[in-house]
Specification:
Rossmann fold; 18 helices; 7-stranded parallel β-sheet; Helicase_C-like; about 650 residues; alpha/beta; GIY-YIG endonuclease; binds zinc ion; binds adenosine-5'-diphosphate
């Protein structure tokens, strides 16, 4: 007699499907099944002897003898599907490496070697580091969440390494999650060279064969440590003993497309399910985490001092209100000169790639705009093209103004490329290393740039946010922060929190070894209260003040949000779909949930689609989620449903 198997299929529907199966089958294995007119790969979620449906089709092939997804991983995936109101088939598909999704064999191609002669550090741990390690290990291998709040360069990574080795000694595995740009060769080498185990990495740059190998080595326990970016949260690790999240405050732990999960939030769930400790490290804790510390759900451990003899850098402001000549103040140029002649490195931080962000007419009000987005186009000089940073669209720059026909077109503002040009006019003999997405597109280019910096020779480094975090350049003495003022103008209620974190992280690159470093911030808003705290390195006080503001406005983390976003080529359809949604939501009638909107997105149009947002907010997470579930069940009554693209974003950050 055949059995009935319930199968999750990667389609955007909140449904699973029953099939007949004659072969031996276990929960968690992959099966090839007929679906509509195609064959698709699904995962068996349950095995039964009855189904509520008639005329079931049969499983074509059982692809695995043993489960690809174990019970704990499956329960994390169910939890995620439920919490993010996302179809289980798509959730599972996000969690699997592509080769498994495609039905390829679950075999390891090449087992990476075990390290033979691990290195030990040549310094003694500080008292603070020792206390941190003891406290984490005292959690007795049970669930306990720790915030490792250590100033930049305080030796947090050293704490990770020691607690990880202690776990490995107990035959446990450790999962380390790092931000998208935090997984540098330096970070990987530090783990590989210090730990007596096989370390595998999981990130988007890896080719599919290596990704599958890493996944399978995690799954069969051969890898003691998995270091990866957000999707690594789904790596199956049967002996998981500890989860570490580095740079906890970083936004890249949240996926911003399709299945919009937050790997940091999921790591708490995973740690609870596995009953193991979790450590979240940062110099600039997110307000969410600080609130959890206040509520005594998370234990804070602090590292207040930089390691060795290093101290925190001196930070000062340059008032740019009186500065009329371009991106660089005289003072900053002067200081750069001094440090370079002392044989030091200087980093100038500007968070905008390209030559100039605006190409405009000096005679009328014309600006080069993207035809498909509501945004100006950025001039890229080396290719002489205008590029849209939202949709990737490109065009040749006009020679005459399309509005007034005069030859009066000019660029305005600075990007990394123009800054490089300006600097080379001042410092003709100094190497300038520009690191942005344009100069690191080619494979290994980023690594080569980092090697050049690490060689330690005096140079100027132009950095975007790719360099804001995690890097440890020993000869870097000064950081100049050029253009952060747009952060003050943002409409996102989290903008000041992000700005404070960015300023401290970037500043943290200076003077990490021996000599005291210096940080200079150029701004047109020198009186902004943020600087009172940043200049004196009082992040926590600043964060507490922000928390008070959030509390009085009942904003997150004191309330919970969900975003319903609709977008369509027809602007009216997108807006009206959300009006229909409001009617449905009001019918569900849950008093404690506030409905805000619909409002048009700050960037109205992207790639020809108009975006509208509807926010739901409540102090009570449970009622908010009940409302969303009911909404999801009835969404088919919305008439415009098939005329728009829409998604739900739980705990949105943008
Ligand atoms: P963080 O992760 O907090 O920014 P790191 O762990 O990268 O800091 O440490 C900064 C630097 O100090 C690294 O080069 C590291 O090797 C070194 N270091 C760490 N702990 C100590 C210590 N106890 N004594 C001396 N140097 C240390
Ligand atoms: Zn004109
Ligand atoms: Zn565009």
């Amino acid at each position: 007699m055949s059995l009935i198997v319930e199968v999750a299929i990667p389609i955007p529907l909140n449904k699973t499907f029953d099939y007949l199966c004659d072969d031996e089958v276990l929960v968690g294995v992959r099966v090839k099944v007929p679906f509509v007119r195609k064959k698709v790969i699904g995962i068996v979620l349950a095995i039964r002897d009855k189904s509520n449906f008639y005329k079931l089709k049969s499983v074509e092939e059982v692809l695995d003898k043993t489960p690809i997804l174990d019970k704990l991983t499956l329960s994390l995936l169910f939890w995620s599907a439920n919490y993010y109101h996302h179809p289980i088939g798509e959730v599972i598909s996000t969690a699997l490496p592509k080769n498994l999704r495609l039905g390829k064999k679950a075999n390891i191609k090449k087992i990476t070697g075990l390290p033979n002669q691990t290195k030990q550090s040549n310094f003694k741990l500080s008292d603070e580091q020792n206390i941190a390690i003891t406290q984490i290990l005292k959690s007795n291998y049970q669930y306990h969440a720790f915030l490792l709040h250590g100033v930049t360069g305080s030796g947090k990574t050293e704490v990770y390494l020691h607690t990880t080795q202690a776990m490995l000694n107990q035959k446990k595995q450790v999962l380390v999650l790092v931000p998208e740009i935090g997984l540098t060769p330096q970070m990987i080498t530090r783990f590989e060279s210090r730990l007596k185990t096989r370390v595998v990495t999981i990130h988007s740059q890896l080719n599919e064969t290596k990704k599958l190998d890493a996944y399978l080595m995690a799954k069969n326990g051969e890898a003691g440590v998995v270091i990866g970016t957000r999707s690594a949260i789904f790596s199956p690790m049967p002996n998981l003993g500890l989860i570490i999240i580095d740079e906890e405050h970083d936004n890249s732990f949240k996926q911003q497309s399709n299945f919009r999960y937050c790997a940091k939030n999921l790591s708490f769930i995973r740690a609870k399910q596995a009953n193991i400790p979790i450590v979240l490290g940062t110099a600039t804790p997110s307000l969410e985490l600080l609130k959890n510390v206040m509520d005594q759900k998370i234990t804070r451990i602090t590292l207040t001092k930089r390691t060795g003899n290093a101290t925190l850098p001196k930070i000062s402001l340059i008032d740019m209100r009186s500065n009329t000549d371009g991106a660089l103040s005289k003072m900053l140029i002067e200081k750069t000169k001094q440090y370079l002649s002392a044989g030091k490195q200087v980093m100038l931080f500007i968070n905008r790639r390209g030559y100039a962000p605006v190409y405009y007419c000096t005679q009328c009000s014309w600006k080069a705009q993207c035809d498909h987005c509501d945004s100006t186009m950025v001039y890229h000089r080396h290719i002489n093209r205008l590029k849209c940073h939202h949709c990737g669209g490109e065009k040749m720059p006009e020679h005459t103004c399309p509005d007034c026909f005069r030859q009066s077109l000019k660029v305005l503002g600075y990007g990394t490329e123009r800054l490089e040009e300006t600097l080379s006019s001042y410092f003709a003999d100094t190497p300038i290393i520009r690191i942005d997405r344009d100069t690191t597109r080619r494979k290994k280019a980023f690594t080569r740039h980092l090697e050049q910096i690490n060689a330690g020779k005096s140079c100027i480094i132009i950095g975007t946010q790719m360099l804001a975090k995690g890097h440890d350049f020993s000869n870097l003495a000064m950081v100049g922060i050029l253009d952060i003022d747009t952060g003050f103008l943002s409409l996102n209620f989290r903008a000041t929190e992000y700005l404070a974190q960015l300023l401290i992280q970037v500043s943290g690159r200076a003077g990490r070894h021996k000599e005291k470093g210096e940080v200079v911030i150029q701004t047109r808003y020198p009186d902004h209260p943020i600087f009172n705290f940043i200049l004196s390195s009082h992040y926590t006080q600043f964060a507490n003040q922000l928390l008070k503001q959030r509390l009085s406005a009942m904003m997150p983390p004191f309330s919970h949000q969900a975003l319903l976003c609709a977008n369509a080529k027809n602007k009216q359809n997108a807006e009206n779909f959300l009006h229909e949604a409001v009617v449905l939501l009001k019918n569900i009638q849950i008093n404690s949930v506030e409905i805000l909107g619909p409002v048009i997105n700050t960037i109205e149009k992207k790639s020809d689609y108009y975006y509208f947002n509807l926010y739901l907010q409540s102090n009570n997470r449970v009622t908010l989620h009940q409302m969303l579930s009911t909404f999801n069940q009835h969404i088919n009554i919305l008439k415009l449903k098939n005329k728009v693209r829409w998604y739900l974003d739980i705990d949105p950050i943008e």
